[in-house]
C-alpha cells in the first residue's frame, strides 16, 4: 500500500476491515490538502485540535504528538482504523483522544478539521455541538473530494459557524474555510422520530441513522415475515440500525435473548433508547462493533440482518459478504440467518456458498427475504 506523506508525517495506513489485496487507500487527496494547509498556516503552541469524521485516522495520526488531538466520528470501524494505524506507525495509543458521536467532545478547540460526511444531518449535528466549544481565533476547515461535496455542506457551515470561503480545487479536492462569528445557541432537530403501526412502536433516530425520517423499504418488506419463537433462542440483529428488527422480533418472541450490533455509534444509541421505550428493562446486549467479529463461535441460534451495500462513499457487497461469513461462524449447526436484500444483488447465490440450505421466504418486485441454514 502507498505511504501517506504530509509535512507532519509519513504513515503506513490501512483501512478497516482489513482485506487481502485491498484496492482502496485509507486516505485521499482531501486529507493531504487539509494537512498541507494546516502546516502552511501553522498551529498555535499546545493547540487543541478536533478532527471530525476521520475515516481511518489519517488526519489524527498525522497530527499525533504535534498537537492535543481529539478525534470524533460515528464509525466504530473508523475508530478501530485509528487504533490500528497508531500502533502500525509506532504512535502511542493515547496520542489521540477518541469521542464517539453519541457523546460531545469538550473544547475549547483552536482548530476543527472536518471530513464532510456522506450524511449531512451528521455534519449539522456536529456543527451544532461546536457552539461554545471554539477558542478565540479558532479556525474551522472542512475538506472533501469535489464529487462528494454538496453545496449544502457550505450552507450548514455558514449557518452554524460563520462566513465560508471555498478554496481552489487541488487533485479534485476542495477545502471550505468557515470563520467563526457570533451565532445564537442553536437547537438541534435531532433525534427525529416516526411511528409504526405494526408493531405499534415509536422509533427515535439520531442524526446519522439510515432512513432517519421513515422506515426503509427493505425493512418494511422484512417485518411481516420475521420468525416467531417461544423458546429461549439466542438471537442477534446484525447491523441493527435503530433496532427495529430486534424489537419487532422480541415482541413476538418473549423468551428470546437478543444482541444488537452496529458499527455506527448513533445507531447503537438509537437502538438502546428504542429498546428501552418498547421493552423496558427486558435484558438485552447492545454494542458498537465490527459486526459479529467479537461474537463467540457457535453461540447464536438466529441472526437477523438487513445488510448495508456501502461503506462511507464506497458501494459494494463486501461488507454484506463479510457479515454473512461472521454470521455463519457465530451460528450453531442448524442455526439460521434471515436477511432481506435487493433482488439484483444475488444474495441467494452468495449464501449458498456458505450455508447448506437457502430458502426464499418472501419476495416483492424489489426485495427478497431469505433464510440460510448452517
Automatic annotation (TrEMBL):
Gene from which the chain derives: rlmG
Keyword GTP-binding: no
Enzyme class: transferase
InterPro entries in the record: DNA_methylase_N6_adenine_CS, RLMG, RlmG_N, RsmC/RlmG, SAM-dependent_MTases_sf, Small_mtfrase_dom
Domain (RlmG N-terminal): residue spans on this chain: 2-181
Documented EC number(s): 2.1.1.174
Chief place of localization: cytoplasm
GO molecular function: 23S rRNA (guanine(1835)-N(2))-methyltransferase activity; nucleic acid binding
Keyword DNA repair (UniProt): no
Reactions the enzyme catalyzes: guanosine(1835) in 23S rRNA + S-adenosyl-L-methionine = N(2)-methylguanosine(1835) in 23S rRNA + S-adenosyl-L-homocysteine + H(+)
PANTHER family on file: RIBOSOMAL RNA LARGE SUBUNIT METHYLTRANSFERASE G, RIBOSOMAL RNA SMALL SUBUNIT METHYLTRANSFERASE C
Domain Methyltransferase small residue range list: 201-371
The protein's name: Ribosomal RNA large subunit methyltransferase G
Gene3D superfamilies named among the record's database cross-references: Vaccinia Virus protein VP39 (3.40.50.150)
Keyword terms of this UniProt record: Cytoplasm, Methyltransferase, rRNA processing, S-adenosyl-L-methionine, Transferase
HAMAP family cross-referenced by the UniProt entry: 23SrRNA_methyltr_G (MF_01859)
Organism (species): Pseudomonas guineae
Gene Ontology CC annotations of this record: cytoplasm
Organism superkingdom: Bacteria
Location(s), subcellular: Cytoplasm
Protein purpose: Specifically methylates the guanine in position 1835 (m2G1835) of 23S rRNA.
Family to which the UniProt record says this protein belongs: Belongs to the methyltransferase superfamily. RlmG family.
Amino acid at each position: 500500500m502507498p505511504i501517506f506523506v504530509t509535512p507532519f508525517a509519513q504513515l503506513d495506513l490501512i483501512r478497516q476491515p482489513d482485506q487481502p489485496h485491498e484496492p482502496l487507500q485509507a486516505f485521499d487527496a482531501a486529507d493531504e490538502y487539509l494537512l498541507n494547509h494546516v502546516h502552511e498556516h501553522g498551529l498555535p503552541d499546545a493547540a487543541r485540535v478536533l478532527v471530525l469524521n476521520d475515516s481511518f485516522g489519517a488526519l489524527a495520526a498525522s497530527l499525533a504528538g504535534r498537537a492535543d488531538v481529539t478525534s470524533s466520528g460515528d464509525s466504530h470501524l473508523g475508530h478501530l482504523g485509528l487504533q490500528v494505524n497508531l500502533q502500525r506507525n509506532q504512535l502511542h495509543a493515547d496520542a489521540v483522544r477518541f469521542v464517539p458521536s453519541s457523546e460531545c467532545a469538550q473544547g475549547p478547540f483552536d482548530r476543527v478539521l472536518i471530513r464532510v460526511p456522506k450524511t449531512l444531518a451528521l455534519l449539522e449535528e456536529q456543527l451544532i455541538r461546536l457552539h461554545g466549544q471554539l477558542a478565540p481565533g479558532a479556525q474551522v476547515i472542512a475538506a472533501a473530494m469535489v464529487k462528494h461535496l454538496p453545496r449544502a455542506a457550505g450552507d450548514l457551515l455558514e449557518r452554524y459557524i460563520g462566513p465560508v470561503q471555498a478554496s481552489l480545487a487541488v487533485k479534485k479536492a476542495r477545502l471550505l474555510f468557515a470563520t467563526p462569528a457570533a451565532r445564537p445557541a442553536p437547537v438541534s432537530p435531532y433525534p427525529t422520530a416516526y411511528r409504526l403501526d405494526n408493531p405499534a412502536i415509536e422509533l427515535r433516530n439520531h442524526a446519522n441513522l439510515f432512513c432517519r425520517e421513515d422506515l426503509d423499504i427493505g425493512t418494511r418488506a422484512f417485518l411481516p415475515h420475521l420468525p416467531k419463537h417461544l423458546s429461549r433462542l439466542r438471537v442477534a440483529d446484525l447491523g441493527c440500525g435503530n433496532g427495529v428488527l430486534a424489537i419487532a422480533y422480541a415482541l413476538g418472541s418473549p423468551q428470546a435473548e437478543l444482541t444488537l450490533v452496529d458499527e455506527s455509534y448513533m445507531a447503537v444509541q438509537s437502538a438502546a433508547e428504542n429498546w428501552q421505550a418498547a421493552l423496558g428493562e427486558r435484558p438485552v446486549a447492545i454494542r458498537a462493533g465490527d459486526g459479529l467479529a467479537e461474537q463467540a463461535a457457535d453461540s447464536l441460534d438466529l441472526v437477523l440482518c438487513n445488510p448495508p451495500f456501502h461503506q462511507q462513499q464506497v458501494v459494494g457487497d463486501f461488507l454484506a459478504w463479510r457479515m454473512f461469513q461472521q454470521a455463519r461462524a457465530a451460528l450453531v449447526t442448524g442455526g439460521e440467518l434471515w436477511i432481506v436484500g435487493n433482488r439484483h444483488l444475488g444474495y441467494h447465490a452468495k449464501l449458498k456458498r456458505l450455508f447448506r440450505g437457502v430458502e426464499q421466504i418472501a419476495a416483492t418486485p424489489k426485495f427478497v427475504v431469505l433464510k440460510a441454514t448452517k
